[in-house]
Amino acid sequence: CFSPQAFNKTIEKDNSLAVGYFQRGFVHLQLEMYEEALSDYHMAFNHLRQNPFIDYKQLGLRHILYAWEVLYSTAAVKCHLQQWQEARVTLEKAVVWRPERRRAILELALERVQDHLFLEPMLVPLGELFRPRKKEVEQLDSKDFLGKPKVISSIIPNDEYIGFEPLRPQKQGFYEPSADALR
């Protein structure tokens, strides 16, 4: 069972995450929320920023999101909306973005759209989750770079107060060192 709520939270935290829109688009398509799916796939393609792919391995997701996959899935949604001509145009655009080894998939998809048959959308392989590297997670622990505060210099004799406090109003004679301390 799919639910878009987890992807909503992900996109709220990083609204430039193309793969988040891509995965939420798949969920919306499975829930037959076609307009929302179409919007998500458009957002995913826009967040690719004219790049042919984004490799998410650096972030801990063993997946590469390709522009042609996003366009293919967009065409799949348009098929469900009975927009066959628009689906064909989108697939032709995907052909421009495709790697050579994926040519057969897109040619088959164009034939299916020509025959008014639905396309199955592309998706991130099931079970693939963001898993940050151990080294990156360890760095999330808070570190004390400053250490414990200590009094280095004070006008008050034998001052052992450690900490911070706001400025106090000066009282006459309170902070003045004694004549013995001056020697």
Question: What does this protein structure show overall?
Answer:
It comes from Toxostoma redivivum (California thrasher). GO terms for molecular function: superoxide-generating NADPH oxidase activator activity. The chain has one domain (4-133): Serine Threonine Protein Phosphatase 5, Tetratricopeptide repeat, CATH 1.25.40.10. It contains 8 helices and 2 strands, in the order H-H-H-E-E-H-H-H-H-H. It has helices at 5-13, 18-30, 34-47, 67-80, 84-97, 103-114, 134-138, 179-182, and strands at residues 53-55, 64-66. It has a two-stranded antiparallel ribbon with strand order 1-2. It is elongated. The N and C termini lie far apart (82 Å).
State the share of residues found in helices, binned by percent. 40-55%
Q: Strand arrangement, largest sheet? A: 1-2
Largest sheet entry = 2 strands, antiparallel
- In DSSP terms (H or I, runs of 4 or more residues), the helix count works out at 8
At CATH level 2, the architecture is Alpha Horseshoe
CATH superfamily: Tetratricopeptide repeat domain
Q: What number of structural domains do the residues give?
A: 1
- N-to-C CA distance: 82 Å
